[in-house]
Write a structure and sequence with these properties.
2 strands; Sodium/glucose cotransporter; 19 helices; 1% strand; two-stranded antiparallel sheet; mainly alpha
Length: 497
């Protein structure tokens, strides 16, 4: 591996760890600082942090890989996500920022729900915390899989250590760097590194498609289109082979945004409610540019591979293959850093949210109600480490697919928390019993749907993405159960609050 690649990566790792130590000095003296950065994020940091923690390795591996293999029809996932993110900024962001502070300065989503529905506080905190920790272990594993694939594809000839495979080195190495700044610097470190990582990711997704199309061997739009037509006349069609349920399964990825704790927690940390609109504009601009770039990497990367006889065994590694082949080593190192940025920005956010729930909704709730601030911060750091180790073991199978793991975890959170968050912020007639019913119903439906294989094949036809039935069941459960309990003392207590 060329020395220039290592120089770029060392500089990147140094920047991330440096930010971690800066944040340790700046904002880790209390639980609120460690878990929410003192609610003092600027609009730009909050916006890019939300975007970078959202996209993960899926943006540079999963989505380009799907488009490389199946064509432009896979872009519907990105379209659905863009719409969902925009609505999330409009509906959830300002309300969540205001209400989490008003309800006793809630630091986690389970804590907010317990304050919003005090009669069912214990059930809501416990069940939601369990769901967060379980699904985040799977979600974090998807990021570690991406790190393992990067090392396996790009550094496999130089990183085999003792009995460890290059894939295993990639998993544990990625986790080690993330832990280095997350454990030390907490939420501020995660948010500041997310900002830097978001900028790096966007630049990479502008540079690579341009070079693939117009660099040596690219041929431009016309030749790329001609090449892809030879592969499949409908490769550039948005509707080729698209069924109604296939379309629905793709665009409904956007529903997941309303229930992703690692994304919506950024809304809680923005300095003021008035700055939410500015953050939204920054975040949506970043997301639009990045999604278009990822689509172009997959589509035009396929054209480049066909024209130049490249054998890409795993379509999810097309970004890695092109970065290694087309660029000067210093730029290649920058592009690999962009992939690591996508991976680590999400992993760090997920680890921190999971550890926050373990600290606030288990440790301080059941074990040490009077725990000091310094003790809580220490337990949070230990929790980050434990969840990361569990995720690494889940990711240990080198045949794991990034997109598959992400889709399962995304659906689990979207169905369990999406309707719950929307209705708790907008519907005054919602009850605590309804909240519990929606939380359990959404999560259980997703788990059963995946277990039965109905996301792959349903009633002899194509599969239906599990977030659809999960979201519907959760919404109906909240609505029906809340109306059924509206005359109870529980409901009147919520209304009076």
């Amino acid at each position: 591996m060329a020395i220039g690649v290592w120089i770029s990566l060392i500089l990147y790792f140094g920047l991330m760890i440096g930010i971690g130590f800066y944040s340790w000095l700046k904002s880790t003296s209390s639980s609120e600082e460690y878990m929410l950065g003192g609610r003092n994020l600027s609009p730009s940091v909050a916006a890019l942090s939300a975007g970078a923690s959202d996209m993960s390795g899926w943006l540079l591996l999963g989505l380009p890989g799907a488009l490389y293999a199946s064509g432009l029809v896979e872009a519907w996932i990105g379209i659905g996500l863009f719409v969902g993110a925009f609505v999330n900024w409009i509906v959830v962001a300002p309300r969540l920022r205001e209400q989490t502070e008003r309800y006793d300065n809630s630091l986690t989503i389970p804590q907010f729900l317990s304050k919003r529905f005090p009669s069912r506080a214990m059930a809501l905190r416990t069940v939601s915390a369990v769901i967060i920790v379980v699904f985040f272990a799977v979600y974090t594993a998807s990021g570690l899989v991406a790190g393992g694939k990067l090392v396996q594809s790009a550094f496999g000839d130089v990183v085999n250590i003792a009995s460890f495979s290059d894939y295993s080195v990639g998993i544990w190495g990625t986790l080690a760097v993330v832990l280095a700044y997350t454990v030390v610097g907490g939420f501020l470190a995660v948010s500041l590194t997310d900002f830097c990582q978001g900028v790096i990711m966007m630049l990479a997704l502008i540079i690579m498609p341009a070079v693939v199309l117009f660099g040596s061997g690219g041929g431009g739009f016309a030749q790329a289109s001609e090449t892809l037509a030879g592969v499949d006349p409908n490769f550039l069609s948005l509707t080729n082979g698209l069924t109604f349920f296939g379309f629905l399964s793709a665009v409904t990825w956007g529903l997941g945004y309303f229930g992703q704790p690692h994304i919506i927690v950024r809304f809680m940390a923005i300095r003021t409610v008035g700055e939410v609109s500015k953050a939204r504009n920054i975040g949506m601009s970043w997301m639009g540019i990045s999604l278009i770039g990822a689509v172009c990497v997959g589509v035009f990367g396929r054209a480049y591979a066909v024209r130049n006889g490249l054998d890409v065994g795993d379509s999810e590694t097309i970004f890695i293959v092109l970065a290694d082949l087309l660029f000067h080593p210093l730029v290649t190192g920058f592009l690999f850093a962009a992939l690591l940025a996508a991976v680590m920005s999400t992993i760090s956010s997920q680890l921190l949210v999971a550890s926050s729930s373990l600290t606030e909704d288990f440790y301080r709730l059941f074990l040490r109600k009077e725990a000091s601030e310094s003790e809580s911060v220490m337990i949070g750091r230990i929790s980050v480490l434990l969840v990361g180790i569990v995720a690494a073991f889940i990711a240990s199978d080198p045949n794991s697919q990034v997109l598959g793991l992400v889709s399962n975890a995304w659906a689990g959170f979207g169905a369990a928390f999406g309707p719950l968050i929307i209705l708790s912020l907008t519907w005054s007639r919602m009850s605590g019993t309804g909240a519990v019913a929606g939380l359990v119903g959404g999560a259980a439906t997703v788990i059963v749907w995946i277990s039965m294989g109905w996301n792959s094949s349903f009633l002899g036809g194509p599969g239906i993405y599990e977030i659809i039935p999960g979201f519907i069941v959760a919404w109906l459960a909240i609505y029906v159960v809340s109306l059924a309990t509206q005359t109870s003392g529980e409901f009147r207590a919520v209304e009076a609050r």
